Amino acid sequence: MSAPIIAPSILAADFANLQRDIEMLNESQADWIHVDVMDGVFVPNISFGQPVVEAVYKHAKKPLDVHLMIQDPDRYLAAFRDAGAANISVHYEACNHLHRTLQAIKALDCKAGVAVNPHTNVQLLEDTIKDIDLVIIMSVNPGFGGQSFIENTYKKVRQLKEIIVENEASTLIEIDGGVNAHNAPALLEAGADVLVAGSFVFKSVDSVGTIAELKGINL
Ligand code: DX5
Ligand code: ZN
């Protein structure tokens, strides 16, 4: 098994020292920088918008993995691409025409991702799986960092992996919420490719070491 892609979430960074925290990620084994955008409508919290993403992009040496927790994301796809997003993920629950939204993201030359809430069955992605570059399986209810991991996630990862294999798709499986060194091995074993970690990385005394620990998990 190859090493997981590690995507620390800057939602748990120190917003008053964002440049410092991005530089720490640049020097670490992080592969992507996960950027959580929340609109206060789709989720009960507001984080930041494209001006902050643009500021992060100026300092980042790793691709920005932008997770849009916003209603009707089509309105803002180009703005986030212009702000520096490499990957743009929209929520299954926030789109009326998911297939069209995926095409729109790809037309902007970004990787197209779909995030699914804990209550959303991954079978719903079967008909679009070949058009999806990455699926974010939410392992907490979106809106806040620092919540505890929902155990049902393992089952969803296995189901999604089966759909990907059956359809000969190359979709990556990303896990977001409550990820740590304790649940990461079983997630990778179930078929996850990308691990997002916010609190586990930024609340640790040695964030660079914690990222290395996640990167080094070998089954
Ligand atoms: C939750 C966000 C996550 C969050 C993860 O709505 O999508 O990316 O930052 O944070 P932790 O790892 O602390 O659960
Ligand atoms: Zn996220």
UniProtKB/TrEMBL annotation:
Pfam families hit by this protein: Ribul_P_3_epim (PF00834)
Pathway assignment: Carbohydrate degradation
Enzymatic reactions: D-ribulose 5-phosphate = D-xylulose 5-phosphate
Residues that coordinate or bind a divalent metal cation: 34, 36, 67, 176
Keyword match Flavoprotein: no
TM ranges: none
Positions of the catalytic residues: 36, 176
Annotated binding of substrate, by residue: 9, 67, 143-146, 176-178, 198-199
E.C. number(s) listed in UniProt: 5.1.3.1
Cofactor(s) listed in the protein's UniProt record: a divalent metal cation; Mn(2+); Fe(2+); Zn(2+)
CDD domains found in the cross-reference section: RPE
Details of cofactor binding: Binds 1 divalent metal cation per subunit.
Gene3D superfamilies, sorted: Aldolase class I
Protein keywords: Carbohydrate metabolism, Cobalt, Isomerase, Manganese, Metal-binding, Zinc
InterPro entries assigned to the protein according to its UniProt record, in alphabetical order: Aldolase_TIM, Ribul_P_3_epim, Ribul_P_3_epim-like, RibuloseP-bd_barrel
Gene Ontology MF term list: D-ribulose-phosphate 3-epimerase activity; metal ion binding
First-level EC class: isomerase
PROSITE patterns xrefs: RIBUL_P_3_EPIMER_1, RIBUL_P_3_EPIMER_2
Alphabetical GO biological process terms: pentose catabolic process; pentose-phosphate shunt
Annotated GO CC locations: cytoplasm
Similarity comment text for this entry: Belongs to the ribulose-phosphate 3-epimerase family.
Function per UniProt: Catalyzes the reversible epimerization of D-ribulose 5-phosphate to D-xylulose 5-phosphate.
Protein name listed in UniProt: Ribulose-phosphate 3-epimerase
Species of provenance: Roseivirga pacifica
